[in-house]
Request: fold
Amino acid sequence: MDGAGGKLHQSRFLNAPAELKAALAEQARAHGFDVVGVARPDSIPKAKERLERFIAEGAHGDMTWMETSAERRGDPRMLWNDVRSVIMLGLNYGPEENPLIALARREQGVISVYAKSEDYHDVIKPRLKSIARWLVANAGGDVKVFVDTAAVMEKPLAARAGLGWQGKHTNLVSREFGSWLFLGAIFTTIDIPADDPEADYCGTCRACLDICPTDAFPEPYRLDARRCISYLTIEHKGPIPREFRAAIGNRIYGCDDCLAVCPWNKFAQAGREAKLVAREALRAPPLADLARLDDAAFRKMFAKTAIKRTGRDRFIRNVLIAIGNSGDPTLAAEAGRLLDDASALVRGAAVWALSRLLPEDEFVSLATRLRSRERDVSVIEEWAASGPAPVTAEG
Reply:
């Protein structure tokens, strides 16, 4: 979004930057945002260094788009050379219930808090555009808006703008809203005074590092996405590596553990945006029901949510991992039905689920029969080459 016409507008804020920031904050609140701050486009050099190390170590997994956009991602000026100020806005989406509670309901799937409601991109972007239009009309300049879909490092920029700090889990933490802020950015050619960055209040706490089921943090402030459940259940396209399957538990889309355990959440509050309230059908969906979704039913159930982008096959793969971890033999029938699914990814996950739920002799007999089907030889080798997997933390 460009506001070239604003260049000719005589801004009523031309010589009143403090008034502009106050009016900007008022506009942000009027559009439902809970916090706003401004950062300089050259204020995140350490973020660029961290990103380069992250990619050099291969910690981005198969998210190749991060590598191809690394240069632009590391410096906002590479994305838009004319940018002089970055306005960062945060919208609280705090859950009504601690997400960790749902992990004990093994027959139900756990969906990350952010994905249980309407897609936040669709909620936030129109509001950013509206604020941007107001800015052009009242202060001139050009603008561009971003919501987690371009090469913008929102979290480091939000930290520099004073919205919070990046915790040891690399996510943004707010003293007022805890872990639960959606972020949006408005780049502008207007020179707006920057806010002071927030201090790091993590102290000696290691709660987010210690709770991670897959040890995805090699050290504080560093993430290896290849071990992260959010990456594995959302971004990863192939079979989930055996070593992580049991640790995934009943998480079928994303993981909130490191966010939910943060002590700063004691100051958080439930989000007030109606469009971001969890859909009733996604609060605690039974695994048995989810396993029966074909592509059309999947698209209908998850229309206008972030989950739809993952696609039915990857989602059912996750559901089958959860079924295998449920310890509920009655769910074996759902996994068995999916042995004939058109997707090899789904068939393979069904094999693994059955290796966890069936008595060993039954599973060995099943695997032998499946190996006789030419199309399933590679599936069996990928998912159950060593026979039934013991029910342990390693999977």
